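User: Fold this; C-alpha cells only.

Assistant: Input:
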Amino acid sequence: MLFSTATGYALRALAALPEDGTFSLAKDLASQLELPGPYLAKILQGLVQADILASVRGPKGGFRLTRPSHRITVGEVVIALEGPHSLDGCIMGFPTCGGDDPCPLHDAWGVVKAQVVASMTEATIRDLQLMDIRHQKEARDRIPGKKP
C-alpha cells in the first residue's frame, strides 16, 4: 500500500459522511465501515486540525465536512495525514538515491509519482462517494436470483 492504514480509513470515513452537513458520531462511522472506533476517532481529530472536518461534542455532535465534498481533494487528506513530503524519497529506500546517484527505479518512480500526485489533486471526496454508490449498486445487482 502506498499510504498508511490511517489515510485509507480517513478516505473511507470522509466518503461516508452525509452531504447535508449533519454531524456523524465517530462510533457510528466506525460501526458502519467496520473500522476500529478509537483509532478512527483519533484520525478524524487529525482531520479537524487540518480544517477538513468540523467537530462538536455532545449527543447531537460528531463530525462533518467543513465544505462540500467536491471541494476536498484526496491530496489534501493525504497531506494532512501523511505529510507534505510523503511521496519524496527513494521508492526502494536508498538514502543516497537522487539525480546524481539514482536507484534502478528512480526514473520510473518519478513518472508514477507525477501521475499519483496529479490524480490526488484532481480526485475529490465526492468522486469517492460516487464510486462507493456505484460499487454498492453493482454488489446488489450480483445478488443471486435478483434481476437487474
